[in-house]
Write a structure and sequence with these properties.
Elements lengths: L1 E10 L2 E11 L4 E5 L6 H9 L6 E6 L2 E2 L7 E4 L11 H11 L4 H14 L15 H14 L4 E5 L7 H17 L3 E6 L2 H7 L2 E6 L2 E7 L12 H15 L6
Helix pairs in contact: 2-3, 2-4, 3-4, 6-7
The structure holds adenosine-5'-triphosphate and magnesium ion.
Magnesium ion binds next to helix 1.
Length: about 240
């Protein structure tokens, strides 16, 4: 599904991504983790087609990315909701842009709001919602378009610990109900281990390690020792090579 080959991106003289290569299978999930400034968002922008590579290539379904793909959805860290539109209008926007007929639009938006448990907020505006509710609206808007690739930049970073776990559970549930490839950027080791089938550890524009997570998909994983073992492994990989070790 995704084939990143020798990808390099510079901002002026700074190399934000330095010769990165990896592949992600169709309908799997991948978490990208690494310290602030290591290039995670830059990588996501390249996958979304918002940034062009300076060298190397990004292929989605064997096609080089040329601008924004119809079947790719991107959820940014600040949710990207339109403050002057209601929840319903925010979610239906993408369908309207695609000229879908009203009856079908109503059916899709109604179903997705109910699946995400936000039907009761449909007439509210984003400023009237909590962070967790806003994030669910942003996910509803992305899923309404039935993407085959969902890209998320730190989906839960603005949320408290309990809401964070609820949102992560919801993302896993949605992934199981709707086949799609998910790539998410996170600062949180726990989030990477709960939601990443593959975990890409980045540092200073490069990939440090890629781990396969055999326990991905278990809704109860946080209650098991396996979860903490993988968390520890990710932590050790992130810290390896540090001077204070
Ligand atoms: N538009 C830009 N112009 C110049 N430099 C940029 C720009 N965007 C990012 N950078 C630089 O590129 C590097 C990678 O940035 P990026 O936003 O991809 O990091 P990140 O891993 O997402 O960080 P964070 O975890 O803080 O969100 C950083 O050093 C950053 O300062
Ligand atoms: Mg970022």
């Amino acid at each position: 599904m995704i084939d990143v080959k020798n990808l390099t991106v510079c901002y002026g003289s700074e190399r934000a991504l330095d010769d990165i290569s990896f592949t992600i299978e169709k309908n799997t999930t991948c978490a990208i983790i690494g310290p602030s400034g290591c290039g995670k968002t830059t990588l996501l922008y390249c996958l979304a087609g918002l940034l062009a590579p300076m060298a190397g290539s990004v292929l989605v379904n064997e096609q080089p990315i040329q601008g924004i793909r119809k079947d790719t959805a991107l959820i940014l860290q600040d949710y990207g909701l339109f403050p002057w539109k209601t929840v319903w209008k925010n979610v239906s926007l993408g369908l309207q842009v695609r000229d879908m007929d009203k009856k079908q639009e109503k059916q899709i938006v109604g179903a997705i709001l109910s699946e995400l448990g936000i039907e009761q907020y449909k007439q509210k505006y984003p400023m009237e919602l909590s962070g967790g509710q806003k994030q669910r609206v942003a996910i509803a808007r992305a899923l309404a378009l039935k993407p085959d690739l969902l890209l998320m930049d730190e989906p839960s970073s603005a949320l408290d610990a309990i809401t964070k776990e609820h949102l992560q559970n919801l993302i896993l549930k949605l992934y199981k109900a709707h086949p799609m490839t998910i790539m998410l950027v996170t600062h949180s080791i726990e989030e990477a281990v709960f939601l990443g089938q593959k975990i890409v550890i980045m540092d200073q524009g490069k990939i440090k390690t890629i781990l396969d997570n055999p326990h991905f998909g278990d809704e109860n994983l946080r209650n098991k020792q396996d979860f903490y073992n993988v968390c520890l492994k990710v932590r050790q990989c992130m810290n390896s090579g540090d001077q204070d070790e």
